[in-house]
Amino acid sequence: MTLSVVIITKNEAAHIEACLDSVAFADEIVVLDSGSTDATCELARARGARVEVSDDWPGFGPQKNRALALATGDWILSLDADERVPDDLAQEICRTVSASQANGYRMARLSSFCGRPILHSGWWPDYVLRLFRRGAGQFSDDQVHEHVQVPGKVDTLAAHLLHDPYRSLEHFIDKLNRYSTDGALKAYAKGRRTTVLGPFGHASWTFIRHYLLRRGFLDGWQGLVLAGMAATGSFYRYAKLYWLARSRE
């Protein structure tokens, strides 16, 4: 059985080398880039990856399906450029694809923020389905927060994936802004609406849920910042939803 790793990128020069080094055991690595202006493509090719470039951006789900269509392996491991496969997970993946009875496998993902692994705040364990038989799974068409859809048996691996999602606080804020816009547009399309006070209520509840109910206070000052940023993202999303409704209706 052969394994293909598929990764979509844009301006991931800071992450791509470590990501590709962690999956050097794969039979094939496919990188689908969407117009990087940094050295992402050159660095990926230097690591032996097959690099293709798309001239548009259809959203995360459709773009990952494009990358999936380029792969030739019997099994697919889908990664983001800011993720790493540690040695114990690499060994488990190799054993799994050699003798598997399931169509897909989920794994826990351990994320770090400002140098600290986050074990609370709703971040752990963050199970993601990333390993599946080619032809047995595809990505949802969601613009953001896409997920793999695999019919049939799905099992769970014992080892976990590593994730370092934010290069800086500015990067975090930029993602919050983009994701809240996409979330507001998706909610509006589904007919959801909010009041002028809605953003405040949702932001307050989000902070309480992350910092108290999900025990973010155990993650030190990073947990406090994460709760505040989650609340900010919720405020942005519902404020934009309110603005959309006001401006379009």
Q: How would you describe the overall organization of this protein?
A:
- With 249 residues, the protein is an alpha/beta fold.
- The chain folds into two domains: 3-163, Spore Coat Polysaccharide Biosynthesis Protein SpsA, Chain A (Alpha-Beta Complex), CATH 3.90.550; 169-248.
- Helix content is 41%, strand content 22%.
- It has seven helices and twelve strands.
- It has helices at residues 16-22, 40-46, 60-70, 87-98, 169-189, 198-213, 220-248, and strands at residues 3-9, 28-33, 50-53, 75-80, 83-84, 104-113, 116-117, 126-133, 138-139, 148-149, 154-156, 161-163.
- The strands form two sheets. Strands 1, 2, 3, 4, 5, 6, 7, 8, 11 and 12 form a ten-stranded mixed β-sheet that branches.
- The mean pLDDT is 95.
Question: Keywords for this structure?
Answer:
Spore Coat Polysaccharide Biosynthesis Protein SpsA, Chain A, 249 residues, 41% helix, single chain, 2 domains, globular, alpha/beta
List the helices and strands and how they pair.
Layout: E1 3-9, H1 16-22, E2 28-33, H2 40-46, E3 50-53, H3 60-70, E4 75-80, E5 83-84, H4 87-98, E6 104-113, E7 116-117, E8 126-133, E9 138-139, E10 148-149, E11 154-156, E12 161-163, H5 169-189, H6 198-213, H7 220-248
Parallel strand pairs: 1-2, 1-4, 2-3, 6-11, 6-12
Antiparallel strand pairs: 4-8, 5-12, 6-7, 6-8, 9-10
Helix pairs in contact: 5-7, 6-7
Average residue pLDDT: 95
The biggest sheet, with number of strands, parallel, antiparallel or mixed sense and barrel status, is: 10 strands, mixed
The CATH topology assignment of the largest domain is: Spore Coat Polysaccharide Biosynthesis Protein SpsA, Chain A
Beta strand %: 15-25%
Overall, the morphology is globular
- The CATH architecture of the largest domain comes to Alpha-Beta Complex
Low-confidence stretches: none
Strand and helix order: EHEHEHEEHEEEEEEEHHH
- Report the CATH C-level class of the largest domain: Alpha Beta
Rg, nearest Å: 19 Å
When the domains are counted, the total is 2
**Helical/strand content category:** alpha/beta
Kindly state the number of beta strands.
Answer: 12
* Assembly status: single chain
